[in-house]
Amino acid sequence: MSNPPWKPLFLTHIETLKPPTFTLATTTTVPPGYPSLNPFHDPQIQPSSHPPTPRCRTMIYRGLLTSLPPNPQNPLSDHNPPLYTSHLPTFTTDSRMTKTSELLSTSKPGGSMGTSAGEYVEAMFWIESTQNQWRMRGRTYLLAEDDVNDTPAITDVLERYLVPQNTGIPSEGEEKTEWTWKKEVQMHFGNMTPALRGSFANPPPGTPVSLGDNGSVVKAAARRNFRVGVVVPEVVERLDLKEDDAKARRWVYWIEDGKWKVQETWP
């Protein structure tokens, strides 16, 4: 699939967003009043199934898949070469977080869950400088360093959206010996600050501070806990509020027969 028509303007807008935050909306079947403080060691009985309810979180946008710029403050010895671009937004998360269980539609998060296909989400970006709102709806995928090179059921899907640099046309059978999915995950890990990388060695989210930090155990699992989240947009909406209410407009983009369509509408 070639690059979509909305991508250039989205990238122009996102460059003005400091810090590059967005809202990620998921759903859960855990009752709204249930305090999931520690999904790993919570002694409470797990609640019964409940109709889906929404959850929203502020996330950091980590660039488009395969287009993460190298960070000179945290260089890697072996980066992926810049062979591809894509239009798939990325974020990072800890496999032990409750958010992970919502993305994967499981009862509990867990570090043993590697590269996986997730549920549908909506990502919303508010660009204050341009008074534009971007909403992207699509399926998520979580990539783990340990097994991402060995999960073709996931990576084959994502490869459909990779576009060779400077051509705009997907390749067929192009040599990929220098480019690997594992390196892509490693680049995201290396691009974070040392403090943020170290946070993946903390005790499981929700663990009471009073229980202490078994550092020798959890620090060895820091990279194993790290996940790169990928959103594959199927519908993209842009709402432009820069003008007065009488001129406000909304554009809806969607995929039809493998091609992006667009319709301008009233908000």
Automatic annotation (TrEMBL):
Sorted alphabetically, which Pfam families does this protein's record hold? Pyridox_oxase_2
The GO terms this record gives for MF are: FMN binding
Looking up Gene3D superfamilies in the UniProt record yields: Electron Transport, Fmn-binding Protein, Chain A
Cite the Pyridoxamine 5'-phosphate oxidase Alr4036 family FMN-binding domain residue spans from the record: 4-142
Which residues are listed as membrane-spanning? none
Instruction: Please give the superkingdom of this protein's source.
Output: Eukaryota
The record ties this protein, via PANTHER family, to: AGL049CP, PYRIDOXAMINE 5'-PHOSPHATE OXIDASE ALR4036 FAMILY FMN-BINDING DOMAIN-CONTAINING PROTEIN
> What is the protein's name according to its record?
Pyridoxamine 5'-phosphate oxidase-domain-containing protein
